[in-house]
Design goal:
Distance between the termini: 18 Å
Structural class: mainly beta
Largest sheet: 5 strands, antiparallel
Number of helices: 3
Radius of gyration: 17 Å
Shape: globular
Strand order of the largest sheet: 5-3-2-6-7
Order of helices and strands: EEEEEEEEEEEHEEEHH
Helix content: under 10%
């Protein structure tokens, strides 16, 4: 099912498609709450392809509210990101603005400084492909990667995968204090993580080109998005 479009009527359905290879948040984070304003600006570029996949640096993510008696199944947000690295598709400009719909509140990816994001063009507007993202960190050689098993939360699409060692200049860690044991046992596992003093230290994962291919061959293929 392809998601990412606004819903203006109550629909009694549960929609869940997890995306981030690791559930939760790293120790280094940006402010979680939405800002009180949203500034369109002349920096924003133009998306030239139906799908654009990129590493983005958060500028702001701001909640929008229903008007004229509308009731939405999801919360809506306007997002503005700096394009750090293009992975797939064409975008002319350094800043991208797009709409995000999330059933669970403030988008998880917006709690981090950087994320691999999937944005589609639909009837002249840009929408985040619902729940498709990876929080990413930069390795010492300048590449971007996500920690953990990229198939952990979408095992139905699993294919053979060789985890890659991720050399970071500073350790990327995840506090385990707020996780149930079954989550820790499922996601923070070797060889991807080493548990040290109540934290999961990232050791292995996947680079963004691999992450895009995994999505393209899995969830995006099922949705009919980004196919050759």
């Amino acid at each position: 099912m392809k998601q990412g479009r606004p819903l203006t009527t109550i629909v009694f359905a549960a929609i869940f498609a997890a995306s981030c290879s690791v559930p939760g948040s790293a120790d280094v984070r940006v402010a979680e709450g939405p800002l009180n304003y949203f500034h369109p600006n002349k920096e924003s570029g133009v998306q030239k392809s139906d799908l654009f996949v990129f590493v983005g640096e958060k500028i702001e993510v701001v909640e929008i509210l229903p008007t004229d008696g509308e009731m939405w199944l999801d919360q809506g947000f306007n997002a503005k990101y700096r394009v750090v690295e293009s992975v797939y598709g064409e975008f002319d400009g350094g800043v991208i603005e797009f709409r995000v719909w999330d059933h669970y509140g403030y988008p998880r990816f917006a709690k981090f400084p950087h994320a691999l994001l999937f944005v589609s063009r639909h009837e002249g507007s840009l929408y985040h492909e619902k729940y498709r993202y990876y929080t990413v960190h930069q390795t010492i050689d300048g590449r971007w990667a996500a920690c953990g098993d990229p198939y952990a939360r979408v095992p139905v699409h699993r294919k053979p995968f060789d985890p890659k060692p991720l050399p970071f200049s500073e350790p990327v860690t995840f506090s385990l204090n707020n996780y149930r044991k079954e989550w820790v046992d499922a996601f923070f596992v070797p060889p991807y993580f080493e548990i040290v003093d109540g934290k999961a230290v990232c050791k292995m994962g996947a680079y963004v080109d691999e992450l895009f291919q995994i999505e393209r061959d899995g969830v995006l293929k099922a949705w009919g998005v980004g196919q050759p």
